[in-house]
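Hi everyone,

Forwarding the result from last night's run.
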Amino acid sequence: MTTSDPGGGPGAAELPFFVYGTLLPGEPNHDLFLRGRTAGERPAVLPRALLYEGPGYPYAIEGHGRVHGMLLVAAPGVYGELLGLLDHLEEYLGPGHPRNLYERVVREVELPARWAAEPGEPLAPRESGPGEHLAPREAGESGAAGQPGAPVRAWVYLAATAVTRSLRTGGVLIPEGRWTTGRAPGGS
């Protein structure tokens, strides 16, 4: 499911964010943009998408694959600030704007089975691994607790139309849909 950004202004749904590149834990933009602004971070997968190399950062586009990343929940009281910071970082000026580098869209992402909860218990990892940070599921958070792989609606920054065209004709696909910059997972 893909839905265009309805503006993200007052009254817009405070959805979590799915990130897959330089905003991942251990990557340079994680500390710059996310430290102190998230209430929870957990591994997630963006289905029906492909990941391509960019100039120091990746691009996700619609496609027949999967992109691995993290689902982030904004800390209380900072949603608007975080949304503005991420829009600026991703060079997103508004839906369909010709100078967008990325488009902000609503997509369904999946949580791995080990992050699903038993019915009635908060969402938590079955076993923690390096680089996995999590806050319990908050009331009203998207998704279906207790259902492994259940979709969660989230904001995702996908490559804008012109960038997508260029990637499809001459881009370098990232195998397995996992962004790395030479560091071990978890920033080690």
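The longest strand covers residues 59-74.

Cheers,
N.
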